[in-house]
Design brief:
Length: about 400
């Protein structure tokens, strides 16, 4: 890679990524970085370059292609080791990936997702009642939209799909945030959270073994026990964790970021309320302009790879820079930094990935977000942020991209 500039040392505390993305894009579409723990890596920042990376036949997801890891140069307590050590379809390639993906893909067909619509609509209405109660009971009339709507909606839906009992859901979110999203945790905290999450998912699987139901976990267990060659115990746990985390963290951030965008761009909200734009337009433009995932680990070139003129050596851990690609002016025009529901081409965004690993849950996430946003602003058309947007605390992460809380007033 280039020797002309010092590689950017990633700040584990993360923060809003957009100013950093703009600075790094000035260096080029691919930037050399130093990951927490002093591990050399790269991030792909350009839209076309990221699309090429995500679909490239010589780029793998399995950490057996991670040179430094295979050579023993990565510490056991490396904070990002959970991403390299995970087993599941998100870290599998080729036939292994197709095998694992086939086991869960039937749960996310268009027909199966559409069948969930009445449940998502009913649950959203219940959660808006809860939001209204919280605002009424608060002395200042303020309630946290993340706590009352944006989190429990996708968390409840994915847990119902997986057959997770309600008493586990709060702790599952806390642990998945620590393991996957938060990047400012100490190695000891990260390892303890991984251990507890693995144990808790084991408890959930054991409950479904005792009491099988019409849920995805029971189906995976049945596949494992009917033909162990199709799914190992480690792959079962890894697939359950992937479904849980991907099934709620990204949608939580998507709903949050969309509400923030609409509250700070009332002219764009008016377009939807006047029928000049749709809630699907809101979701597409939010995914592009302020996507729920910023820089996601890891992909590994299986040979020396040249992207946009930059050489990325074989075995380098590469981050997918989704928020950077979403504001690439070469792809979205010179005003790519502007939130615009009438922008042509927003649906081309890469926030759900591209190629063989395109997110299976994308249709469900889109449905949850459009239903939540439509019901929210239909019931509370004057809903607004309770504090200036700039004062909202950003997630302490370079992986997740959102704020930690979203205090709102339901009336002006």
């Amino acid at each position: 890679m280039s020797e002309q500039t010092e590689p950017y040392r990633i700040d584990p505390a993360g923060g809003c990524p957009h100013a950093l993305n703009a600075r790094l894009r000035e260096r080029g579409a691919v930037a050399e970085v130093v990951l927490p723990g002093g591990v050399p890596g790269a991030v792909v920042l350009g839209h076309e370059e990221l699309k090429e990376l995500l679909g490239h036949p010589d780029v793998a997801k399995s950490a057996r292609h991670f040179t430094a890891l295979q050579e023993g140069a990565i510490a056991r307590d490396w904070p990002l080791r959970a991403f390299a050590d995970a087993q599941g379809m998100h870290t599998a390639d080729d036939e292994d990936h197709r095998r694992l993906r086939s086991l869960v893909s039937s749960a996310f067909t268009a027909r199966r997702v559409e069948a969930l619509r009445p449940r998502v609509e009913a649950l959203t209405a219940e959660l808006l009642d809860d939001l209204a109660r919280a605002a009424t009971e608060a002395p200042d009339g303020v309630a946290d939209l993340r706590t009352h709507v944006a989190l429990p909606l996708p968390m409840s839906v994915i847990c119902e799909l997986l057959g997770v009992d309600p008493e586990h859901r709060g702790r599952l979110h806390e642990l998945s945030y620590k393991v996957i999203i938060a990047t400012d945790t100490t190695p000891a905290e990260a390892m303890a959270a991984v251990k507890e999450l693995v144990e808790l998912m084991g408890t959930i699987a054991a409950a479904r073994r005792e009491r099988p139901g019409d849920d995805l976990t029971s189906a995976l267990i049945q596949a494992r026990e009917a033909d162990g060659d199709r799914l190992s115990e480690a792959e079962l746990g890894g697939t359950m964790r992937l479904m849980l985390v991907a099934g709620h963290e990204t949608t939580l951030n998507l709903i949050t970021n969309a509400v923030r965008a609409l509250c700070t761009h009332r002219d764009q909200l008016a377009l939807v309320q006047e029928g000049k734009a749709t809630w699907n337009d809101v979701v597409d433009e939010t995914l592009r302009w302020d996507g729920p995932v910023s820089w996601f680990p890891f992909r590994y070139p299986t040979r020396d790879l040249r992207l946009a003129g930059t050489l990325v050596p074989r075995g380098t851990p590469v981050l997918a820079g989704y928020t950077a690609a979403g504001r690439d002016a070469r792809a979205y025009g010179p005003d790519a930094d502007r939130f615009d529901l009438t922008r042509p081409g927003s649906a081309r965004n890469l926030s759900f990935g591209h190629g063989a690993h395109y997110c299976l849950g994308a249709p469900l996430a889109r449905m949850e977000a459009t239903i939540a946003l439509e019901q929210l602003f239909t019931r509370f058309p004057d809903l607004d942020l309770a504090v200036p947007e700039a004062e909202l605390p950003h997630q302490k992460s370079f992986i997740g991209n959102s704020v930690e809380t979203l205090p709102v007033r339901l009336t002006r």
